[in-house]
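Input (structure):
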């Protein structure tokens, strides 16, 4: 519990330090409570448990990472998720971001391209009691058309451009948070807002570094 409290203090300090760029001087109380409730150690490999609450990304295998807690907190805060919202997550990864969203009362549809990661994330989410998360293996750039529209969309890997399919599946009004940029180049976290009339506005929030969002057939899928 002390490690979790230290993580929250580190997140809040970084939120204050980046407020000039993000426009967020502090986390919403609901977001802080969700971060405090989710057991991050459930979502990291056994060899990383000692570092589970460090405010930095950690490797989870398959060339992927569990995002820095501050970034998870910021992206969640920017989404402004309401209870009962339908949320699409592109890039399940460890399952930690989905667990935080589920704690906010949202139903989460989460897509992962790598079957091994999806399997481990599913087990971790079950252990955390996150029954309101639906997982599938697939190409996240295509979204989840049969479950659309979504009130909120969060993308946890960097796309060179914002996928049009995701914008189309965002409800009006709705919000999407996505990192945009090249794998080894500049990336910016962007907040995309669609108003009630369907007009889309984009705001650059913060420089970030994410693994790339990969389109195409999921790795390991049958040919």
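Output (sequence):
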């Amino acid at each position: 519990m002390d490690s979790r409290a230290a993580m929250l203090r580190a997140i809040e300090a970084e939120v204050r330090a980046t407020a000039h760029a993000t426009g967020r001087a502090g986390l919403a109380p609901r977001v802080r409570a969700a971060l405090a409730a989710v057991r991050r150690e459930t979502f990291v490999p056994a060899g990383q448990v000692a570092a589970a609450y460090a405010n930095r990304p950690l490797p989870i295998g398959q060339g992927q990472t569990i995002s820095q807690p501050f970034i998870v907190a910021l992206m969640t805060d920017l989404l402004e998720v309401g209870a009962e919202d339908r949320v699409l997550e592109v890039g399940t990864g460890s399952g930690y971001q989905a667990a935080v969203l589920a704690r906010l009362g949202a139903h989460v549809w989460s897509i992962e391209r790598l079957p091994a990661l999806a399997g481990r994330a599913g087990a971790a989410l079950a252990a955390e009691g996150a029954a309101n998360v639906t997982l599938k293996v697939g190409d996240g750039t295509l979204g989840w058309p049969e479950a659309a529209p979504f009130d909120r969309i969060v993308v946890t890997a960097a796309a060179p451009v914002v996928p049009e399919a995701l914008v189309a599946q965002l409800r009006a009004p709705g919000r999407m948070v996505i990192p945009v940029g090249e794998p080894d180049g500049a990336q910016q976290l962007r907040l995309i807002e669609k108003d009630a009339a369907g007009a889309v506005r984009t705001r650059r929030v913060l420089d970030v570094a994410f693994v790339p969002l990969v389109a195409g057939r999921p790795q390991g899928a049958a040919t």
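Notes: The mean pLDDT is 95. The radius of gyration is 16 Å.
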